[in-house]
Specification:
about 290 residues; alpha/beta; Carbamate kinase; two-stranded antiparallel ribbon; globular; homohexamer; eight-stranded mixed sheet; 2 domains
Chain lengths: ~290, ~290, ~290, ~290, ~290, ~290
C-alpha cells in the first residue's frame, strides 16, 4: 500500500507532464488484447477519461478483426485474407459494419460512460468523415477494401469542442456512397495527421517494435521516421506490426511530432507513457 | 409535363407553409415499406433534405424489425414475439444493435448525403441519449426489452445546431451500461416530446388510421388525443398500428401540437403533408 | 389543377437548385412594368420572400423614373433628358429623393411584409452606403446626376445578418453631403460587385437582350462578358437596355459569376430562373 | 475668448454628468425652429454626435408639418386641420410620407454625417417599427391619421448596437399594410417608453411650459406627472404645446424617469440640459 | 521508489476525485508556516497549479502578520494587538499594504509562475473587490481595522475566466477611499461565499481543530456548522484558531458545502485532501 | 464665471478631438510633482476617467523615486545613485516593490475610483507582463536594476477590454523569477510600443523640453524623432529629462505616432493637450 503523502507526491510529480500535454489532441489506436477482457477495457476507458480531465483531447480509433471473423463463421462464411487484408464481398462488408459500428464502438462508449466520461461513436460515414476509394493494385480483387483519400474533421471537432470523447469506427464512404473496409491502423495514422495530433498511440499485444520478434528483450526504444521507413522497405517488419509501424510513419510524416507503439496488455500503459518519466514501448519521431 | 411557369407558381404557393414551419423541429419515424426499396429511401432522403433547406430541423427515428428477424434466422435463431414485442436475450440484443446501429442508421446517412444533406447517426448509447430500464410487467420475461426513462437531448442539439441531420437508432442504455431494445415508435414519441417538436410524423404501410383496417376508404382524417386514447383503451386499435397511435398520443400529451400517421408507400408524403393544402393520412391533436 | 403528389414532386425537383443557391447573395434590380401593377408587386415580393426562406440573401435595388416624371409634372416642372439621363436641378433632386426613398422603397417594404417577409429601406445616404460624385463629361450640365465612387456595405450587411431583406433607393451622397441622382441599373451592378453577389438579376419589360429589338424571337440566351462589351461599344445596344447591359457587364467584371436580364412582365420570373431547368431571358457571364 | 486651461476645466466639470448618462438611451423629439435654419440643424447634429461619443445612445424622432403643408400647396392641395390634426386623404398621406421619409429624415442623416456621426433613417414601416390603426372618435373622418398600437424595437436596437444613430420618421403601418400619419410628439413618447429611455427631450420654439403663454418669464421649471395631467385635463395647456406635454406624460407613465421640454431656438440646448448644472426648460417627472 | 505501473495506478485512482471537483472554485487561505520556507511555498504553488490543470479554479487569499510586525519593528514601531487584532494607525496601514500587496502577493505570483501556472495579484482596492467599513465596537479604537461589507467578484471572475490564478491581498477599501486592514481568514470566508465556492481550505500550523490544543491526537475530523458555532460561542476555540473556524462557519452559512482546516506544514496537504480517500485535518459542513 | 451656453459651446468644440481619439490607447507616464499633492492626483485621475468616458483606453505607468528614497532612509539605508540609476541590492529591491506596488499603484487606483472610474494595478510580475534581465555594462554593479526584454500585453488587454483602467507598477520579472527595478520612463516607452498606442504622454515637472533648461521660454514645441536622437547623442539633454526623451524616441521608433512631454504641474494638462487646439509641452514625432 502506498502512503497518502506519497500518493499526493506522485500526483504532483505528474504536473510537468500534464502541463506539457494539456490542450493537445492524442489519437489512440485501440485493438488487440486490450479490447478483449473487460478488465482491460475498463483500464483503457479510465485512461481516456483521465486524459480528458487533465485537458487533453483524446480520440479513439478501434479495430475489430477477430470479432468480425467470428461473426462471419457464425453466419457460415469463411474469412479469407490476402497479404493480411480481408477479402470483403458485399455481405462481408455488412458484417464488418455491423461489428465495428454496431458492437465494438457502442461497447467502448458504454465503458467510457462507466469510467465517468461522455462519449460518442462516429463511423467514417457519419459526417462523411472518412472518404475512401477502392484499394487498387494487387493480383486479387479484395472487394470493398478501401483506402482513405480525405479525412473531414468537422464532425469530430464539433463533438470534441462540445466535450465528447469521440470513438471512430473505420468504415469509409465512397463519393458514390459505397461502403469501404479500412484498416484501422492506417486510419488512425491518417486521422492523427488530419487533426494535427500531438501523438499517435498504437496499442498492440507486444511490448513495442522488437528487433527479434521472438525476444521481448530486443525492444527498440526510439526510432527515427527514416529508420522506420527503411525497416519497412527492407521487409524487416512483418505481420500485424507492419501496418502499425506504417501508421506511425504516416502520422509523423503528416506532422505529428511523435508516435508510440505501446503494450496494450499492460494496464494503464497510456498513462505510464504520458505521465511518468519512463517511456514504455517504442517511440517513432521525425 | 408541367409548364415552367406553373412550376414557379407551385413553389410560390408553398411559401405560406414554409413560413409556417421554418425554425421548427419535426421528428419523423421512418419504417415499414418506405425503408425497403431504394426508390423509397431516396424519396424520403430528398424530403428530409428539402425540409432542412427551408429552415426546418428534421430528426429521423428508425426501426428495423424485419431486418433483425432475417439476421437472426441467418444465425440460426428463431425470432419470438410476445404481444408484439421481441423476446430479446443477450445474443438477440447484440443482433438488434448490429442491425439498427451498424446497418440501417448508416444506410440512411448515406442516402441523405446522396440527396445533398449532411447526416450523423446517434444511438441511444451515444451521449447517453436514451436512458432506459428493463420493461416490467407481463407474464413472460422479455429479456433486454426496455422502456425510456429519460431522453438527454444535448448531443442531438449539438449536432442539429452544427447543421447535421440526426438519425436516431433506438438502442437504450441503462444506468448500469446495460443495452436495451426500445420500440422505435415509442422512442419517436418520447424524443418528439423531449425536443418540443412541432410535429411527430409516423410513416407506415397504411394510409393512416382506418376505422375498418380492411377498408382503406375508412380513413380517419383527424382525431382528438382524447378520442385516440379511448380507441386505444377500448382495444379498437390493434397490431402494428397500436404503438404508432400510442406514440402520437404520447407526443401530443408532452406538448407536441400535432402528430401525423402518413402513408410511407406514397412518394414524398412528408412534403405533401407539410407543403400542400391537402392533409394526407391521419392527424392527431390535443 | 395540379395533383398534390405532383406538387410535392415539383418541390422536390427544386431541391438541387435550392442547394446550389443557399447562402448566396442575389441582387435584384427591380423596375419597369414589374413595379406598376399591384399584382406584379405581389408576385415579386413573394419571390423575394421565398428566396429568403430557402437560405438566399436577396437585396433589391429599385428605380422609379416614371413616377418621378409624373410628380414633376404635377408640380409644374417639365422633365428634361439628355442622352437618357434626367437633368436634375436642386428641386428635381428633392423630387427624386421623395419619390424613391419616400414612396417606392416604402411601398416595396409593405409588399414584402404582406408576403410574410421582414424588410427595411436603405438610401445611399443611410450609413453612407453609396458615396458618389458629380458625373462629369458631357456637353450639358446634368446638375445633381452622380456616379458611385464607393459602396459601403456595412449597413447592408448588419441588416442582412439580422434577417432583414434590404431595399436600396439609389440616392448617392457626396463627401460634402450633397445628394446625387444615381442610375438604378448602374447602382445595382456596383452593389452586386461590392457584395460579391452570386447573381445580379435585372428585371425589365422585355424578354431579355434581343438581337432585333422589334423581334422577341431574337432573344440572346447567353452572352460572354466580352461579347456584351463589344456590343455596347459598337452601339448595337441602345435605349433603356444599354444601362442594364452595362450594369451586368460591370457586375461580372467585379467578380459576380453571372448576371441575368429577365422579363419582369412574367409572374415569378425570378423563381423560374433560379429553381427550374429553363433559363429565362439573357445570361451574361465571364 | 476662453482660456485653454478654463476649457479643460469645463470639460472636466462635465465628467459627473457624462458618468451619469453613459450607457443610457435618450429620445429626442426634433422639430420646429430647430429644424429650419442650417445653423440650427448643425447645432443639433453636433449635440447628437457628442452624446454618442460620450456613450449615450441618442434616437431622434422628427416631425415636419410646415414642409408638408408647403408641398401640398405647391401641388394645389389646401391643408385642412381639425383640432390640430391634419385631415389626411390618400394623396396627402403620400405627400406626408415623401416629405418625412424622403426629405427630412434624409436631410438629418446628412447633417449627422457632417458632424462626424453615422446615421440611418427608419420609418415606422421599416421593420414594422410603428404598428398603427386608424384614429377613431371625433366628428370628422381624419382619413389616414393613425395612432400607435405597438412599437417593435428590434430594428432600432439592431442599428443602435451596430453604432448607428437612428432617425425615426413617424409613418405608421397597419396590419393590413395601410400607411398612417402619426403625430411625431406622440410617437416620441411611445418610443421613449418602449425603449425604456432615460429621458425624452422635446425641442420646441418656446422656452418650455409657460403658465402664461404670452410671458416667457412664467416658465415652469419642474412639474410632477400628475400635475401635468391635471393641467391637460383642465385645458390649461393648449395648441402645439398640448401634444408635447401629453408625450412627456405618456413617456413618464411608461417608466421614463424624466421628460424635458427644451427651447430648440437656443444652440446646444440638449448639451446644456445634460452636461451643466443649469436645467433649461421644463422637466416633467413622476 | 515507487514503480511506474504503480504511479499510473495512483494517477488513475485520483480520477473519481478529479471528476468530482472539475469546474468548481476552491478558495485557499494561505498563511502560517506554509508561507515561510521556500520549500513549502513551492509545494503550495505546485498544488495550486495542479488544481488548475485538472479543471479546478483555485483562488488564494493570503495573510502576512509576522512579516508586517517585523517591518514595523525595522521602522521603529512596536506592534500592538488588542484581542488578537493589530491596532492599525495610518502609518501601520501603509506598512500592512506594502507588505501584503507589495511583497507577499507578488512573491506568491512568482512561485506560481515557477510551478508552471499564470497568476495575478488583486488587492481589495483593485476593482473595488473588498468594500469595507471601520470595525466598530470594542473598548479600544483599532484605527484602520475594517470589516467587509461587500465583495465585488467581477474582477476576480474576469481574471479567472481568462485563465489566471488570482491571489487576493486582503486590503479593504471604504466607500470614501479609506484603506482598511482586513483579517485574512475572515476575508477568505466572505470571498468563498461570494464566489459560491465548492470548498474553503484554510491552511494553518496545526493538524486541524484539536479538542485539546496541547494534544495533536485530539483532532476533530468532521464537525457540523452548528457544533462549530456552539464551540465558538462557548469559548472553547481560542487564539489564532478562532478566526479560522469563524471563517469556515461563515463560508458554510453562505452556502459553501464544506470548509477544511488543513495542516499547512505537511507538503501537498491540499492534494491529499482533494485527491485521496484520506481526509486530512478538520472538515466543517452544514 | 463662464456662462452655461458658453460651457455647452466649449463641450461641442471638443467634439472633433473626441472623434479623433476615440478607440485609441494612450499611455500616460505619471510621476514627479503631479504625484505629490492630493489636488494634482485628483486632477490627473479626473483626466484619466474623462478619457475613458469619451472612448479612449488610457493606461498609466507610474514611478515613485522620492518615496522609495524616503522609505529607505526611514529604514536606515542610504540611497545611492550611479548615473541617475539607483543601486538596488536585495533589500532595496523589496523596498522598491513595496512602495511601487503596495503604495503608489494602490493610491492611484483609489483616486481613480473617487473620480468615478474603475481601476486595477498590474505589476510586471502579474501575468508576467514585464519580462526583464539584469542591466549589463557600466563600471558599477547596480544589483537588481533591469531592462525589459519582452512586454506580454495579454493581461493588460484582458483588463482593458473588461473596462478597467490599468495602472502599471514597473517591477520586472526575470525568467528565473528574480525581481528587477525598471526605470518607469523606459517602461512606459516600451509598453506604448507593445500596445501600438496612439500616444505616449510623459508628465514631468517642467513645461517640456527646453533648449535652455534655465529658461522656460526656450520650450521646443515639436521635434522630429531624428533630431531628438541627435540631441540625446550629443549630450544636449541631461538629467531627469534624458530617460523621458529616450522613452519618447523609443515609443515613436516602435510605431507610436506621437509622444508628448507635458507639464504635470498644470492642472488638466492631458485634457488641454488632447481636446483643445493649443498644444502644451513638447511633441516628438517621426
Amino acid at each position: 500500500m502506498v502512503e497518502h503523502s506519497m500518493r499526493a507526491e506522485i500526483l504532483v510529480e505528474a504536473l510537468p507532464y500534464i502541463r506539457q500535454w494539456t490542450g493537445t489532441t492524442m489519437v489512440i489506436k485501440y485493438g488487440g488484447a486490450a479490447m478483449v477482457s473487460d478488465e482491460h477495457k475498463r483500464s483503457v476507458a479510465q485512461d481516456l477519461v483521465l486524459l480528458q480531465h487533465v485537458g487533453i483531447k483524446p480520440l479513439v480509433v478501434h479495430g475489430g478483426g477477430p470479432r468480425i471473423s467470428s461473426l462471419m463463421k457464425q453466419m457460415g462464411k469463411e474469412p479469407v485474407f490476402v497479404d493480411g487484408q480481408r477479402v470483403t464481398d458485399v455481405e462481408t462488408m455488412e458484417i464488418v459494419q455491423m461489428v465495428l459500428v454496431g458492437l465494438i464502438g457502442q461497447d467502448l462508449v458504454t465503458h467510457i460512460y462507466q469510467a465517468g466520461g461522455r462519449a460518442v461513436t462516429v463511423s467514417g460515414k457519419d459526417g462523411k468523415t472518412l472518404v475512401a476509394c477502392k484499394k487498387c493494385g494487387g493480383a486479387v480483387d479484395l472487394g470493398h477494401v478501401g483506402e482513405i483519400i480525405e479525412v473531414h474533421t468537422e464532425l469530430i471537432k464539433t463533438l470534441s469542442e462540445a466535450g465528447y470523447l469521440v470513438v471512430v469506427s473505420t468504415i469509409g464512404t465512397g463519393e458514390d456512397g459505397e461502403a469501404y473496409n479500412i484498416n484501422a491502423d492506417t486510419a488512425a495514422g491518417e486521422i492523427a495527421g488530419a487533426l494535427s495530433a500531438e501523438k499517435l498511440i498504437v496499442l498492440s499485444d507486444v511490448p513495442g517494435l522488437l528487433r527479434d520478434p521472438a525476444d521481448e528483450g530486443s525492444l527498440v526504444a526510439t526510432l527515427k521516421m527514416a529508420e522506420a521507413q527503411m525497416m519497412l522497405e527492407s521487409g524487416q517488419i512483418e505481420g500485424g506490426m507492419r501496418p502499425k509501424v506504417e501508421a506511425c510513419v504516416r502520422a509523423v510524416s503528416l506532422g505529428v511530432p511523435r508516435a508510440h507503439l505501446l503494450d496494450g496488455r499492460l494496464h494503464h500503459s497510456i498513462i505510464m507513457e504520458l505521465f511518468t518519466d519512463r517511456g514504455v514501448g517504442t517511440m517513432i519521431e521525425r
